[in-house]
Amino acid sequence: MMQFFNVQEKSDWIIYNRYIQRDLELCKLLIDQELRNTKDNNEFAFYILGLIYREEGVKQIARSCLLLGRNDEAQKMYLEAERMCREPDTKVYYNLGLCYLNLGELDKSKEYFHRTIQLSRNQDAYEKLASIFAMENNFKNATSILIAASKLFPFNTNISVDLGLLYMKQRNYDQAFNILGNTLCQDPENPKALLTLAAEMQRNCGYDEALAKYTKAVNDLSECSETWNNIGMCFFGKHKYVAAISCLKRAIYLHPFNWIALYNLGLVHLYTRQYVSAFVFLSTSAKLNPNHASTFTLIGLALNHMNDTRNAEKAYRKSIELNPDNPEALINLTILEVNQGKIKEAEKYFHSFQEACLSCDAIDKEIIELGKQVSDVLDGHPGSLDEDDDETTGHDEPCAAVVE
User: Fold this and answer.
1) What is the pTM of this model?
2) What digits encode the pLDDT tens for the residues 166-190?
3) How would DSSP label each residue in 207-252?
């Protein structure tokens, strides 16, 4: 004998089906319609509505805690929400992943992001999971995650740019440029792709090409300090020092605590022989980041040109303390000791300079030439080096690498 659901049982079944599938907004609409039809005479509909409101209340409190940075409290609330949910809730899983990420518990964070992407197509979860693997230098897994994400979201340019950056970190430049090029074909004004390509061109001294990319990107990133810093260093590479100083000052205006822009501004002022200004900017940079060895090398150069050899020597020693294999600081300290007649001290630092050169992957040719001049001086034991060679490269430029 055939049996049929009555109308109310059918409505209850539809409501329950939407609830267990976590389509809560539609579930609430169905409940509202059912309660109007039955004149609030459906106990099961009220029961499901109460469950939904209880879950939403906990999740709303947890979300507020997360936004306020109270990650411990948010984590506890989301775990409570997870316990109350009768079926897996990917939003809860994703937010738990964020909580654990903010708390530095990367393994738990990866676990919840993995659960999220297994149950839903959550683009943000893919990106977060890949970023955690990249933080752990597990580029293989990070790349695999982003490749999977790019197949699910083929028109999402942010994912493709992140994938291009990962390939660059792995020095797979052909693949990186191919992906970034395709990204710009989809979105010619994508600032992230433009900046990535521009920075790589800048590292390879393609300053004109880099400036063309930065010009496109700066329309969307006109208030970005880092962009103006890189534009300034492009002009610096083209020996356009006035333009470089102007761009670097704009970078500092936008972000007064940008120690890299302050360092670069000090470097440019050294090149233009404005030693007092160079010292001011470099000292500020050193206060913001006291662990950057090259900053103290440049401070030493500025002080030496201001005839403050005692403090210049202290700056060089501080640089060597931070990085014992810093060839720029070692050769400049060697020259300073020679000019002060401290030959034994000079020989000790010159020996350290030679060892540092052997351990470095790449050394500026001008520093090597300067080392040869110092070697000749030490072999002959004259009183001092020529003033034109004192603590400079072959073109009277400070021995330092540009931070971009």
Assistant:
1) 0.67
2) 888 888 888 888 888 888 888 888 8
3) HHHHHHHHHHHTTT-TT-HHHHHHHHHHHHHTT-HHHHHHHHHHHH
